[in-house]
Design brief:
Elements lengths: L1 E2 L2 E2 L4 E3 L8 H9 L4 E3 L3 E2 H5 L3 H5 L10 E6 L3 H14 L3 E6 L4 H4 L11 H14 L4 E6 L9 H11 L3 E5 L13 H10 L4 E4 L5 H11 L3 E4 L9 H9 L9 H19 L1 H15 L6 H8 L5 H16 L11
Parallel strand pairs: 3-4, 3-11, 4-6, 5-6, 6-7, 7-8, 8-9, 9-10, 10-11
Antiparallel strand pairs: 1-2
Helix pairs in contact: 1-11, 4-6, 6-7, 9-10, 11-12, 11-14
């Protein structure tokens, strides 16, 4: 299956995860079968003005490919310029964020605020598509207010302007992560779409992904927080869609992946920052393991790589000796 010029292997895509979806995490998701990975959202104005922190977020590993860099912003000129910079950086696709409900993003007119201004949606998508030869994707919600539904309108704008694929989250911005996800609006969009549609929202397990795809008939399914501490969810999705039972991940493999993640973070960010970054990820990896609460508390006190490895080895031994198979609980 394809999105524009990109050939994708699989149907599970990693969602943009602010604060979590950095390069090391994206690498692990690709290793476990994610068809494509989205980056954390990046400020178009930050790129335009060369903000140091923003520019650091443009780092990616070839092992992530295909990688879709997500931009946010409300100025067509700045979005176009940022898309040009990303093209020069060698990314695989550019995504326009029209779904983030965070107040600090919305108050700038970006993210889900764009859903309230279809003329601006038109201008932004046209500007970005014109600025890059790469596939341009758009990620939206059903609408902004609780009763809004602008999906069909935005689908038409995207198709007119040459957008390569549309990801649709089945809730509105004011709902945030709460509330029911409207699969029917996504299914309706897919029925009328001339471009690939990515179903998004509420996937916690491989079985959820299978049901979501079967109901909506979408081309791909997007997985966000369910991948945290659980990058193998993409392998499980690929397996179940191929008719196999999802493979359970044993204790040894789980701890091996944790250490791989630690090594990748330290290689990219240095020891102090890498260890600090891993604290939040390890809290997710520990979910469903014995004595998880104790070890979450201990992990937050660690500052050095050797100490962190020692604690992971200790916890690994405890889990191995727990006397029973440990499974990753449903989220």
């Amino acid at each position: 299956m394809r999105i524009g010029s990109l050939q994708l292997d699989g149907r599970g895509i990693l969602a943009p995860l602010a604060g979590y979806g950095d390069s090391p995490f994206r690498v692990l998701c690709r290793r476990y079968g994610a068809a494509m990975v989205y980056t954390e959202m990046v400020s178009s104005l930050g790129i335009r003005f060369g903000n140091a922190k923003t520019m650091e977020m443009l780092a990616f590993d070839p092992a992530e490919r295909p990688v879709d860099f997500q931009l946010f912003g409300a100025r067509p000129d700045a979005m176009a310029r940022a898309a040009s910079v990303l093209t020069e950086a060698g990314v695989d696709a550019v995504d326009i964020n029209m779904g983030c409900p965070e107040p600090k993003i919305v108050k700038t007119g970006a993210g889900s605020a764009l859903l309230k201004d279809l003329a601006l949606v038109d201008a932004v998508t046209a500007a970005v598509v014109h600025a890059t030869p790469l596939p341009v994707t758009v990620k939206i919600r059903k609408g902004f207010q609780i009763d809004d539904n602008v999906v069909e309108d935005i689908l038409g704008i995207c198709e007119k302007n040459g957008v390569a694929a549309l990801a649709i989250h089945g809730s509105t911005a004011v709902q945030g992560r709460s509330g029911a996800k409207d699969w029917d609006v996504i299914a309706s969009a897919k029925e009328h779409a001339a471009i690939p549609v990515i179903a998004n929202g509420g996937v916690k397990t491989a079985q959820d992904a299978q049901r979501f795809l079967a109901y909506t008939k979408c081309d791909y399914v997007m997985v966000g927080r369910a991948a945290l501490g659980n990058p193998w969810v993409f392998e499980q999705i690929n397996g179940i869609l191929g008719g196999a039972c999802p493979r359970e991940i044993g204790v040894d493999e789980r701890f091996s992946v944790m250490q791989q993640h630690v090594d990748l973070e330290i290689a990219l960010k240095g020891e102090a920052n890498g260890v600090k970054e891993m604290r939040k990820h390890l809290s997710f990896y520990f979910k469903g393991l014995p004595e998880a609460t104790t070890y979450r508390g201990r992990i937050n006190q660690i500052t050095g790589a050797a100490e962190l490895k020692g604690l992971l080895d200790e916890y690994h031994n405890i889990c191995v000796n727990a006397g029973e198979e440990v499974y990753h609980e449903e989220r």
